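Re: the multi-chain job from yesterday

Posting the exact lines I submitted so nobody has to dig through the queue logs.
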Amino acid sequence: GNSVTQMEGPVTLSEEAFLTINCTYTATGYPSLFWYVQYPGEGLQLLLKATKADDKGSNKGFEATYRKETTSFHLEKGSVQVSDSAVYFCALSDLSYDKVIFGPGTSLSVIP
Amino acid sequence: KAGVTQTPRYLIKTRGQQVTLSCSPISGHRSVSWYQQTPGQGLQFLFEYFSETQRNKGNFPGRFSGRQFSNSRSEMNVSTLELGDSALYLCASTLGTSDGKLFFGEGSRLTVL
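And the result, structure tokens for all chains:
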């Protein structure tokens, strides 16, 4: 079945450091890929998405490129801020209906 | 535009009891999905409803059930609660166009003692 794997956390970075969170997926067909973020005490919210191979999703300085050849969708940001501290979830959508499958999440802490 | 509203936000139950959680989607959204979030298992898909019909179901026992009403509001019920049911239950709504863009509520945190 479809699944998503993410790098283990927690990840701790200093402010202005470069961020990469690895994500790989297993799926049949051509799913859409997503990154969701969950700030402390809040529900998840969509950060960015990509719907086909080589698409790049971007938002709030975060980027991720849909790589079909490596089945990956790694999240990157050039300079993290304390306010980026959150849990990040990689996800894919089942093509039939609104069934979104999430990875286990990666906790990020950014220290001043 | 009001977001997804879940009630109650927090609740404590004892083993063997049952619980009903409610979710009001964003106005105009016809699809509602439920997820269970735990530290060990992450986000696990429970089920998805569209226009009062269950379209997808995850791998949970029959103690977990749900329904959707004609106004798109949804409820989920867990019967014969077990300690392992302690979790954050998240509801998400979408237009139902299968674009995967979910709008989440803040969740209902269930503690089973």
